[in-house]
């Protein structure tokens, strides 16, 4: 529904996007998540809540509330390209390197 913000299920991607190359709680890439959503759709957060652990995929296509048809990538570090993507394409995702041990102590 236009004008209504609904949260997509992170857990749906954690549990189910292994087929597209993601590795559950061990990480993955936005483009792999997008490939999964293009092929399958995605459930909402309220229907497939986050559990903070890998689990068996219980995706129910009848509960899928949205899908995407494509995505674009912007060059790393290009703020103008990022601005244009937000303006012309819509929502964006970012990656954070959480591989450093100190990242687990981050708070804020």
From TrEMBL:
Superkingdom of the source species: Eukaryota
Q: GO MF terms on file?
A: cysteine-type endopeptidase activity
List the Gene3D superfamilies: Cysteine proteinases
Q: What is its EC number?
A: 3.4.22.15
Q: Which residue intervals define the domain Peptidase C1A papain C-terminal in the entry?
A: 1-108
What sort of enzyme, by top EC class, is this? hydrolase
**Which keywords does this Swiss-Prot/TrEMBL entry list?**
Hydrolase
GO terms for biological process, alphabetical: proteolysis
The UniProt family comment states:
Belongs to the peptidase C1 family.
Q: What is this protein called?
A: Putative cathepsin L
Q: What is the lineage of its organism?
A: Eukaryota, Metazoa, Ecdysozoa, Arthropoda, Crustacea
């Amino acid at each position: 529904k236009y004008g209504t913000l609904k949260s997509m299920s992170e857990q749906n991607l954690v549990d189910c996007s292994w087929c597209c190359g993601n590795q559950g709680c061990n990480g993955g890439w936005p483009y792999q998540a997008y490939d999964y959503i293009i092929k399958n759709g995605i459930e909402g957060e309220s229907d497939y809540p986050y559990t903070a652990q890998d689990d068996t995929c219980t995706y129910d296509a009848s509960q899928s509330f949205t899908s995407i048809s494509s995505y674009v990538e912007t060059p790393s570090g290009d703020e103008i390209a990022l601005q244009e993507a937000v303006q012309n394409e819509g929502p964006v995702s970012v990656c954070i390197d959480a591989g450093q041990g100190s990242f687990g102590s981050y708070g804020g």
